[in-house]
Design brief:
132 residues, Metal Binding Protein, Guanine Nucleotide Exchange Factor, Chain A, seven-stranded mixed β-sheet, four-stranded antiparallel β-sheet
Length: 132
């Protein structure tokens, strides 16, 4: 089990599973939403994710018609994103996980949209758009 929280600690969660896949996303929406050159996230089973505190603080923003980004209304920390046409999957923002994570990123997505001022220094596979 993994535990995590937003920056202010108002939202706390547990994930009862493993991170089977970890992606580094460089799309312009993720860069703007996180304020960083990329975001590291993992697709997880929604039915294994439990908000243990602060559910009332969750706020959503639809960045695309079918994609909502969920964050803390108090501190703004991004928690996960979710496509409404695939509600069984959340894309958890791994920066909110407390403690060590088993596994490592497996690939970059939306590499063609990456910030030109940040240099990648790894040999992970790089996908021009999303991974199919």
């Amino acid at each position: 089990m993994y535990q995590g929280s937003c920056l202010c600690g108002g939202i706390q969660y547990e994930y009862h599973g493993e991170f089977d896949e970890i992606a580094i996303c460089h799309c312009s929406q993720c860069r703007r939403a996180q304020g960083t050159p990329f975001v590291t996230n993992a697709p997880i089973a929604a039915d294994r994710f439990v908000i243990t505190q602060g559910e009332h603080l969750l706020k959503s923003y639809f960045s695309q018609p079918l994609k909502r980004r969920v964050f803390c209304a108090d501190c703004g920390s991004p928690i996960f994103s979710q496509r409404t046409d695939h509600p069984e999957v959340l894309r958890l923002r791994l920066g909110t996980v407390s403690g060590d994570i088993q596994g490592r990123p497996g690939y970059h997505i939306y590499h063609d949209s990456r910030a030109n001022w940040f240099t990648l220094n790894d040999d992970l596979p790089r996908h021009a758009a999303g991974k199919t």
